[in-house]
Design a protein that fits this description.
With about 190 residues, this protein is an alpha/beta fold. The protein has one domain: Rossmann fold (3-Layer(aba) Sandwich). The protein is built from 8 helices and 5 strands. It has a 5-stranded parallel β-sheet, sandwiched between helices. It is globular. It starts with a strand and ends with a helix.
Length: about 190
């Protein structure tokens, strides 16, 4: 069975997590295993730029939850990367994750067989959210050599008032469910 690892950079429960939960349902319907990692629940230290160590040893000296995440990334067939838009960039949580993934780059880990869906979410107009999406795709996913099969920016409400399903009920992104289904089918077809 193919496995997709979904990694969420939101610092709170909200739109990004709701999207991943809906994707998980669709993945299950398509016979694809899916694990969701909420970075806010993980202990991930910041990269301290110790290139004198990682360039030589080809692994990170830090012993935190990132070690397990990197192993899961290597074992997965593909990924969903999702982050809220913060100033046309992913969140600090997601940026720390990106920085710690640099060991893949340093060690020249071949991730070219992996496929990815990349999603950005925000309350701004979609063109603004696209800036975050571009940062995630061009400056992270493509740099690691991962093939991107689908990308999307979804507009949402920022204040959820306790409604964690708001992105599906508010109609700020009216085609979201069909868009997500299409993304799952694209990654499924790319894994054959």
């Amino acid at each position: 069975m193919k496995k997709i690892l979904s990694i969420c950079g939101s610092p709170r429960k909200g739109n990004s997590e709701a999207i991943l939960n809906k994707l998980k349902e669709i993945f299950n319907q398509e016979g694809i295993e899916n694990e969701i990692i909420l970075l806010r629940e993980k202990n991930i230290d910041r990269c301290d730029g110790c290139v004198e160590f990682c360039d030589k040893e080809l692994y990170c000296h830090k012993q935190d939850d990132m070690t397990e995440i990197l192993k899961k990334m290597e074992a997965a067939d593909g990924y969903v990367f999702i982050s809220p838009n913060y100033f046309k960039m992913p969140t600090g949580l997601f940026k720390d994750f990106i920085d710690r993934c640099s060991i893949f780059y340093t060690a020249k880990t071949d991730l070219s067989s992996k496929k990815a869906i990349v999603i950005a979410v925000g309350a701004d107009v979609v063109e603004e959210i696209d800036g975050c999406l571009k940062n995630m795709t061009d400056n992270f996913v493509k740099t690691l050599g991962i093939k991107i099969v689908a990308t999307k920016s979804f507009q949402s409400n920022s204040e959820l008032k306790g409604n964690f399903n708001d992105i599906f009920e508010s109609k700020t992104s009216p085609n979201i469910e069909s868009d997500l289904k299409e993304m799952v089918l694209k990654i499924k077809n790319s894994l054959v």
